Amino acid sequence: AQTVTQSQPEMSVQEAETVTLSCTYDTSESDYYLFWYKQPPSRQMILVIRQEAYKQQNATENRFSVNFQKAAKSFSLKISDSQLGDAAMYFCAYRSASGTYKYIFGTGTRLKVLA
Amino acid sequence: KAGVTQTPRYLIKTRGQQVTLSCSPISGHRSVSWYQQTPGQGLQFLFEYFSETQRNKGNFPGRFSGRQFSNSRSEMNVSTLELGDSALYLCASSLDGLAYEQYFGPGTRLTVT
């Protein structure tokens, strides 16, 4: 069965600095999708970034980028120039591209941004 | 385009009762998934419906059930509530296809006393 692990329950970053959130996953599948979702306090969860496993190029969305290491089954999120609005719970998620197509989420990393 | 809506937003029930939660997906989205979110367990996948059929199911007891209607609206039912069912229940919709992101609703906060 697939698993997603976020080993950092909480992280802090100074405003304008860069922070990296870790995510590892375990799967025997070769085709899948990986996502980072953000859940601000008392607000709805939104997608931050998406990576297709068959793509070698790391996904980038403005200040957000990933380091996707397929062989190591690692999918970290880098936030550059951190802003106060980045404070949230961040969830790493895996979705199988075959079989059950289930979404599996990690337990989340709470990011605090310090002014 | 309106986002995913969930009703009710807050609910208080007592043990042994049953509850029905509702989710209206974004117009045109055919997939609806349900999750249970608790501080200790994170997001746990309950089930996914696609075109009125349950496509996927998580590891929850049979007390948790759901359905999807022809207009893609979905309901989730929990029977014989237990204290441990207290959680935020999130609904998410997506377009057809596996690569598409999920759009989450605000959730229903269920408290079982």
Oligomer: heterodimer
Terminus-to-terminus distance of chain B: 37 Å
Number of helices of chain A: 0
Assign the structural class of chain B, choosing from mainly alpha, mainly beta, alpha/beta, alpha+beta, or little secondary structure: mainly beta
Distinct helical segment count of chain B: 0
Average the pLDDT over all residues of chain A and give the rounded result: 93
Write down the overall geometry of chain A. Answer: globular
Please outline the major beta sheet of chain B: 7 strands, mixed
Radius of gyration of chain B, rounded? 13 Å
DSSP strand tally of chain B: 11
Sheet/helix structural class of chain A:
mainly beta
What percentage of residues of chain B falls in helices of 4 or more residues? Answer: under 10%
Order of helices and strands of chain B: EEEEEEEEEEE
For the residues shown, what is the average pLDDT of chain B?
A: 92
What's the end-to-end separation of chain A, in Å? 41 Å
Largest sheet of chain A: 6 strands, mixed
Characterize the overall form of chain B.
globular
> What portion of the residues of chain B fall into strands of 2 or more residues?
over 45%
Strand fraction of chain A:
over 45%
- Low-confidence spans of chain A: pLDDT under 50, at least 5 residues? none
Fold blueprint:
The complex is a heterodimer of chains A (115) and B (113).
Chain A: E1 3-5, E2 10-14, E3 19-21, E4 24-26, E5 32-39, E6 46-52, E7 60-61, E8 64-69, E9 74-79, E10 88-96, E11 103-105, E12 109-114
Parallel strand pairs in A: 2-12
Antiparallel strand pairs in A: 1-4, 3-9, 5-6, 5-10, 7-8, 8-9, 10-11, 10-12
Chain B: E1 5-7, E2 10-13, E3 19-24, E4 31-38, E5 42-50, E6 53-57, E7 64-68, E8 74-78, E9 87-94, E10 103-104, E11 108-112
Parallel strand pairs in B: 2-11
Antiparallel strand pairs in B: 1-3, 3-8, 4-5, 4-9, 5-6, 7-8, 9-10, 9-11
